């Protein structure tokens, strides 16, 4: 399962609305791809359709779609939003990551 913090939920719902998506029907697609300074990087985008290999979760009024391959890397992750002095953006608190880069956008297992 992937959890969504209160601040991330509010930001996601606002951003989805701004981009023409409906948070009650559409999804936040979360994934992992090769790349980044630590070997793997996170992907986050809005989507209207599910794939046959997607797992779907709902937390804090946000529907999350994750392809099965990515889910192995993301199980237990908490998606948060930071608006602090270090910059604004989504933060993945991933208990599976053994090492992360300074920017928090990539990790390794």
TrEMBL record:
UniProt domain Core: residue ranges: 2-105
InterPro entries: ATAP, ATAP_core_dom, Fe-S_cluster_asmbl/transfer, FeS_cluster_insertion_CS, HesB-like_dom_sf
Family: Belongs to the HesB/IscA family.
Name the UniProt record assigns to this protein: HesB/IscA family protein
Lineage: Bacteria, Pseudomonadati, Bacteroidota, Flavobacteriia, Flavobacteriales
């Amino acid at each position: 399962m992937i959890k969504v913090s209160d601040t991330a939920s509010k930001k996601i719902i606002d951003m989805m609305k701004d981009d023409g998506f409906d948070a009650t029907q559409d999804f936040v697609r979360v994934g992992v791809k090769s790349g980044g300074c630590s070997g793997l990087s996170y992907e986050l985008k809005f989507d209207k359709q599910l794939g046959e290999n997607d797992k779907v979760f709902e937390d804090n009024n946000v529907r999350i779609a994750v392809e099965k391959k990515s889910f192995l890397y993301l199980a237990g992750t908490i998606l948060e939003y930071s608006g602090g002095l270090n910059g604004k953006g989504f933060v993945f608190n991933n208990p599976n990551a053994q090492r992360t880069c300074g920017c928090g956008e990539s990790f390794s297992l």
